[in-house]
Amino acid sequence: MREVISSSLSDSEGKPEFDQDLVDAMRWFDLSDHDRALTSELGDIADDVGERIIEAFYTHLLADETASRHFRDDAHIAQVKKGQMRYFRELINADLDSSYIADRRRIGSIHERTGVTPTLYIGAYAFYLNKLANVVLDRMEDDPAKAFSMVLSLFKIAHFDMALALETYADTREEAIKARERELSELPTPVLQLRPGLLLIPVVGTLDSYRARALTIQLLEGIQEHRARAVVLDITGVAAVDSAVANHLIQTMAAARLMGAQPVLTGLSAEVAQSLVKVGVTAEALSTAGDLQRGIELAEHLLGE
Q1: End residue of a domain, out of 181, 209, 242
Q2: Can you name the residues that pair with 266 across neighbouring β-strands?
Q3: Does residue 116 sit in the same domain as residue 176?
Q4: What is the C-alpha radius of gyration for the chain, rounded to an integer number of angstroms?
Q5: Do 176 and 196 fall into the same domain?
Q6: pTM to 2 decimals?
Q7: What is the pLDDT of residues 196-220, one digit of tens each?
Q8: Residue 104: which domain range?
Q9: Less Cβ crowding at N or C end of the chain, within 10 Å?
Q10: Helices marked H in the chain
Q11: The CATH number of the domain where 259 resides is what?
């Protein structure tokens, strides 16, 4: 679906192929110029009852304790109501062009960052559409066929609109996750001396190839600086590693042995253990322990040999 709706809304916006992507997306939602024309005829009715619908929605919303926490005070509520009125007015009247789509994606990004959940967003949409549709059908009871066609066109445009926002929710959340992973990958890894000859290196966060190389340097420099004879590498705080990083861990342990230190790997998760097996590591090739305490005990034992 992402390729149909927004394959170029971010990276290709402003380029010639953007218009074709928009055409493809509208075709996917069965949207036509006729739908846009029918919906625009709802403008007077929507302007007439829009504020009343939004007021009714916020009466409904603020009665829910969880939902009401999204608002700081009455001034904030008034500001959001004003923005929502503009949002729905554009749904009725705005051109379905690149500017409209960019604005909808911008709003979706703001919703995600400010904690407006998809449930709250879609709930507000459903409330507005259902109330407006009932008003349209009542006021156009002399021409129910046209009223029904207008409502169907409105719902098609609304679903297109919601899809844009939900795509942006996903994009924004994915970018936030990537940013957090970047932050975690840049966390410093301390080299702790538990006692003379014994080091502990706890690794927390994302362990990618770049950080794995930095870890190797820190470990080897720590062995040299402290004249360590055993080192515990604890990866309890690492959720998963890929095969390349798993292979790098093995090389790090081998390098530690070459420098005269006995390495012990602790805190392996099931995912990390599977990654090690994929690169051909066997239990005999590594000194491992299920948790940090047993790892330190094993290292103490190795020091005593």
Answers
A1: 181
A2: 234, 289
A3: yes
A4: 29
A5: no
A6: 0.57
A7: 999 999 887 777 777 788 888 889 9
A8: 2-181
A9: C
A10: 2-6, 17-28, 33-40, 43-62, 65-68, 74-93, 98-113, 118-139, 144-185, 209-226, 243-258, 270-278, 292-304
A11: 3.30.750.24
Structure tokens at 6: 């927004």
pLDDT digits over 92-143, tens only? Answer: 987 888 888 888 888 888 877 777 788 888 888 999 999 999 999 999 999 9
Question: Can you tell me whether residue 86 is helix, strand or coil?
Answer: helix
Residue after which a domain boundary falls, among 181, 208, 243: 181
Stretch (H or E) spanning 230: strand 230-237
Distance from C-alpha of 21 to C-alpha of 143, rounded to nearest angstrom: 36
- Total of domains in the chain: 2
Question: Does 215 lie in the same domain as 156?
Answer: no
Check if the beta carbon of residue 40 is closer than 8 Å to that of residue 47: no
CA distance 275 to 48: 62
